[in-house]
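The passage that follows is intended for readers who have already worked through the single-chain material. We present the inputs for a multi-component assembly, then the predicted structure in tokenized form, and finally a short commentary. You are encouraged to pause after the input and sketch how you expect the pieces to fit together before reading on.
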Amino acid sequence: MEHLIELKNVYKIYQMGSETVHALDGVDLTIDQGEFVAIVGSSGSGKSTAMNIIGCLDVPTSGTYHLGGVDVSTMDDDQQAEIRNKMLGFIFQQYNLIPKLSVLENVELPLLYAGVPGDERRERALRSLERVGLADKGKNLPSQLSGGQQQRVSIARALAGDPSLILADEPTGALDSRTGREVLRFLKQLHREGNTVVLITHDNSIAVKADRIVRLQDGKIIYDGDSRDPRAVVQPHGEGEEDEEVGA
Amino acid sequence: MNFGQSFRLAIKSLTTSKMRALLTMLGIIIGVGAVIVILSLGNGLTGMIQQQVDKMGINMIQAQLWSVGDGMMPDPEELYDLVDENPHVLTGVSPYINLGGVVRHGDEKYEKTHVYGVSEIMYNAATNYTMDGEQLAKGRFLSYMDVERREAVCVIGAYLEQEAFGGDALGKTLSIDGRALTVVGVLKRNAEFEMLPGSQDDQIYMPYSTVMEIIGDRWVSMYIFTSTSGETADAAKQIIEAYLNKFYRTDDGMWNYFYITTMAEQANQINGMMGVAMGVLVAIAAISLLVGGIGIMNIMLVSVTERTREIGVRKSLGAKRRDIRSQFVIEAGTTSAIGGLLGIAFGWLLAKGLGMLLGGMLVESMGTSGITFDATPTMGAILLSFGVSVGIGVLFGYLPANKAAKLNPIDALRYD
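Having made your guess, compare it with the prediction:
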């Protein structure tokens, strides 16, 4: 069977002044339909770069990336936008709702860019809001909602376009631990419903909620396996204090 | 594509920060307002001139003649014949000699009064109108015999009757250049309000033969013709020209001995000059539109920076470059369109106010009754201003919009 995500020998190299930074240093990674994977690493490990490339927000310097069997590593801006629109649902740490749009309008956005006509758009957005239990808040502005509710709205937005892959970037980072757990439970439930979820985090305690952990350090995968394996959460030497690490 | 949402977003950002919106639109409001004021006043003036022309008669043709070396000039009788021979285009002709004399009655002098030497043909009893649009109120007009015998009679305007004779002038006398004239008729009042000296209500018709006697001229140098209608004025002019060319033997197209102009031509000349003046003023006002456009560009650049994160989010959700671009272009267009609408309203009100202030003065100075000054912008002017303001928004919004469209989604998402 074809893999949903297939990264082959991916490098991402930045030039920062006179220094060359290997944000990703030869990464091979495959993720299949229906998996729940956590990409873990400290700041500077390359996990953000990995998330950008998996999320089609960036292209690798070398290597190939196939998403759903399609090579997306050489696509231009607008082609990537279309792939993001059709295949990906983003959940951000800062929710990233547009403050001037109502909750419903926010959820409608991916459908709007997909060219879904007005009535159907509203209906699907509403259904998506129902899934996160916020159907009654459609007319509210994001600022009138609590942090946890806003994050649920952003989940509804990610789900609205029926994406093949849900990418959650530190989804609990801005929430207190109780609402954070709620959001994680919700991601787990999405996974049980058959969605593929990729979670990016620096926090081992969150990463272990996933079935599989991919640990990055200095742009390389240092562990890829079951999250119940004790090695999955072992801090390798030199890692731990995030602030010591620099780079992308 | 998402025009509705972009439009609503634009309205939202305008209403949430009203002061900023107003300042953004100010240049456009002032520019469009100025254009509307200029076009409205111009429209009012054109309308006023048109009314004047209509009143005077769009079928009026003036002919100025000069004498050739041998002093020969056409005799009025020959021109009467010319009219009789061309009834399909010409309806009348009369000498129309301006006598620059001073009118006196008792001890009073009336220096502004226009005195014209005309023939009896000047007045058509059937319609009660003179060829230059006056009506008779009392008494009679000049007669054939008055002209033949160079009688010392005259028909005066309502102003003189009022001022010099206290409203009863018939049979009384006044003097022009020391010549006593008996008033045989009084013209109908034109002015709606005050009658002014030198206005259309302040004139005298007397037999042209008598005028020529006073000034000691042998030939009539000024005529007015009437054509059957405004449309035939040009044809009539050609017939008169042909006749005069033959008379002066200047068929080679020389016109030095006479000058013929129709009322329509005069109006066109005035309108042409006004068009140029208005064009210059509108061009100056357009500078304000340019400044307004730059103001919009400036605020849109600020807006793009402020909303970098929003742009990143939209891109991550699948917005293509053209989606972002059109969102900001629509927003800029909406802003300047609203500015344009406000400018149109503001300009309209200002033009109305100025029209009321200036219009009365202008109408009085024309001295013709029934003429109104209406400083209303034409539909064309409104549509043009609106179109231009939308165009400016789109034009000046394009650069910021393009900047937004080209933002890298990762950088934009990371932006605080």
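Commentary: Chain B has a mean pLDDT of 86. The interface with chain A takes residues 1-2, 5, 9, 12-13, 16, 309-310, 312-323, 409-410, 413 of chain B (CB under 8 Å). How closely did your sketch match?
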